[in-house]
Amino acid sequence: MPRASRNGSGRLLPRGVTLLALLVPVATIASLALGANALSPGELTHAVLRPDGQEGDVIVWSLRFPRTMLGLLVGAALGAAGVLMQGHTRNALAEPGLLGVSAGAAFAVVLSLRFAAVDTMLGMVAAAGIGAALAATAVYALARHSVHEGGPALVVAGAALTAFLGALTSAVVLLDAKTLDSYRFWAVGSLAERGQDTPAVIAPFVIVGLLLAAMNARSLDLLALGNDVAASMGLKVTRARLVGLAAVTLLTAASVAACGPIAFIGLLAGTLARALVGASWIRGVLVGALAGAVLLVGSDVIGRLVAGPGELQVGVVSGVLGAPLLIWVIRRRELIL
Amino acid sequence: MTSLVPTRSSTLPLVITTVVATLLLAVGILLSLGTGEIGLSPVEVLRTLAGQGDPFTELVVRDFRGPRVAAAVLVGASLACSGTILQSVARNPLASPDLLGINAGASVAAVAVVILAGGNGGVSGLAASVGLPIAALLGAMVSGLALYLLAIRNRQLDPIRMVVVGVGIAAAGTSLVSWLLTLGDVMVVGPALAWLSGSLHAVTWPAVAGVGLTIAVVLPFLLAWTRRLDVLVLGDDAAGGLGIDVHRTRVLLLLLATALAGVATSAAGAVVFLALCAPQLARALSRTSRPPLLASAVVGAALLTWADLAARMLLSWVGFGPVELPVGVFTAVLGAPYLLFVVSRTRSTSLEGRRP
User: For B117-157, what is each residue's pLDDT tens digit?
Assistant: First the structure.
């Protein structure tokens, strides 16, 4: 809140946001060029401008381009979902991974893989959507009275929900070796080998989710004043909460179905958004989406570079880099937004 | 220890709780030793335990089910003790080795040993009997130390900060474990995942001995320190005023809790929520101001013995065939709703200790 006055006046967008927007193409280019077989700038421009079937062209278009698009989409989705959840719960630690929403989506996906023989990305997104919506409603209902004070009880409720759903997930997975084998590669959270058309399948969900999030952010500026004040200023509080739930559900479901549960991207993006634009939620969602995209693609590139010629899955990189951030936030920051 | 519990009411509920839990534990042990593919009556089990069984029942009771039941008792007791200490030190009913990331540290170390040193056949020989428990213990110690250093500020321990730091450590540990799991062969990964969910399936007598030894060393020491636990619950300032070196006492207690949880985890994997629930259950039943140590240990042992019996037999009782669930899945499915209940009932102000 106190930061709003410092950043809100004068310039349309703070310098940090411009820098972040410039980082998106930088991360994209790095993701296209770097990896087990690093491409020179010449090879990359050749592949992008006049592809004619050379080795570099194939690498870029069949492997790295879908992967990068997926990273941008999923990162933007997780970042915006993180900001939105932080706004609704008024808790600096809220994000899909920590609050159990991703775990709900993951459990629903595993159930659908095992019992309904779902094998299309669309079916997985649908299953993940149901799971995410139920988990988000549950965690919000359970920690409701601490929500207004932005209490850390929400994080503990999320951890409990994650553990509960995780146990159910492993019960399902352990009873069937085939599900186990596909589960472990999906559960780690990775952008690799997700299929050529996955980005196209989840793109509509992410775009609708982002639009809903942007619409909802305007209500968040009012909700920040408290439910009663917001209602007296003409806001339909219940509808605003439901739109928020729908946006978080769409964004989380699309990302979990495509890449598995990836924690901390939402937390990082939300923290960055608040540092850059303060309490303006509508800008926060924009910055959160940008930051999420940069962070996820960046983590993916880091994972490819540090473990070459193999790679570290992006979920591992974000977990190992994100946990210290969580600890830093809880040590230094005011948790109540 | 009963006389030291600072309470207005009588110690009668505490005594009753301890006695009833002990009885339930004994019945659970008898049933668990007798139940399985080969059914034995409690009388047969008792006769075998007294050394008068035939060689066949002796084989079943001593070699097949013995280590498993003994492990359930000892692991349950040590996890409950660990939870009791942590909840008293953190002044927080939500503190437990699994929620605070101590189990995650043990899991990372143990899975690393299984996956990286195991080749295709899993760990065997010396690496399995000595290396795995020691690795788990070291992993638990490292994450316990990190937890303490990160949760403390200005030599003050903020209870809620400790829990969230723990959630962070646990999350980092979980993602490392997921990565380790993708490295291994699926034949190794299956057992590793079952172990991670907490399973008493493959427990051996040496592992049981390790847990038993740890409890035998730590428990008397803890009972001697009961008064310090009572005073720590009052908060740093009051405890300091009553003449206790808060910092040193806390480090030592945390070390003991970590050792108990680490050794238990090395034997049985990540049995979650037991360390959280057992002390609180014992406290509620015996109406003491903080979790009572001995009663918690007995309640924990009884809970895990019964949970293991249920996890072992549930699926075949409902007609699913002789498949068993890891006991940790069972404790999580039962324990997580309890944690959610506690969170939903607790006002965040009381959860946050002395935050303004």
Answer: 654 444 555 555 566 778 888 899 899 888 888 887 767 77
- d(CA B308, CA B181) in angstroms, rounded, equals 25
Q: So what's the pLDDT on residue A2?
A: 43
Closest CA to B265 of B102, B73, B93: B102
Bigger pLDDT: A131 vs B120: A131
Give me the phi and psi of A258, to 5 degrees please: -80, -40
DSSP 8-class letter at A91: B
CB atoms within 10 A of CB B327: 29
Yes or no, beta carbons of A323 and B346 under 8 Å apart: no
Band of pLDDT at residue B231, cut at 50, 70 and 90: confident
Q: Do A313 and B182 touch (CB under 8 A)?
A: yes
Other CB atoms closer than 10 Å to residue B28's CB: what's the count?
A: 23
Residue B272 to chain A, least CA–CA distance (Å): 8
Cis peptide before B42 (omega within 30 of 0): no
CB contact under 8 A, A189 and B175: yes
| Contact present, A334 and A150 (Cβ < 8 Å) | no
For A303, the closest chain B residue by CA position comes to: B179
Query: Which structural domains are found in chain A, ordered by start?
Result: 68-332 (1.10.3470.10)
Tens digit of pLDDT for each residue in B276-313? Answer: 888 888 888 888 777 888 889 999 999 999 998 888 88
Gyration radius of chain A's alpha carbons:
20
How far lies A284's CA from each of A8, A83, A149, A268, A332, in Å?
12, 7, 21, 12, 21
CA distance A230 to chain B (A): 23
Q: Which two tokens stand for residue B216?
A: 């035998």
Kindly list the structural domains of chain B, giving each domain's residue range(s) and its CATH number in brackets, ordered by start. Answer: 2-351 (1.10.3470.10)
Query: Which pLDDT score is estimated for A6?
Result: 44
H/E segment holding residue A7 = helix A2-8
pLDDT at B356: 31
Instruction: Please tell me the pTM assigned to this model.
Output: 0.78
